[in-house]
């Protein structure tokens, strides 16, 4: 029963935080520094989700070796993104490298 109250409480808080922006509308003007900082939030959140999954895929100690397909795929995707600035190509190449590495390289080593 405590979980139900916890989830409902989080839903109410989230609703009020998100609806405040819509209810206040244009009456609230953020300073330029805050607007600039808010532009980096999606990149920061995505990085905070992906990096731990790539570095510690099994939830234990960091696996910083060439046998970690998540890390190899993520590093390849970073390189493709830096070189081309094309998100769809970055995702496709990162996934292809991950699956090829997991299917071909890792089984040969083990």
Automatic annotation (TrEMBL):
Keyword vocabulary terms for this entry:
Membrane, Transmembrane, Transmembrane helix
The portions of this protein that span the membrane are 6-25, 37-55, 88-109
One Pfam family name from the record?
AzlD
* InterPro entries, sorted: Brnchd-chn_aa_trnsp_AzlD
Name this polypeptide is given: Branched-chain amino acid transporter
Q: Which lineage do the record's taxonomy fields give for this organism?
A: Bacteria, Pseudomonadati, Pseudomonadota, Betaproteobacteria, Burkholderiales
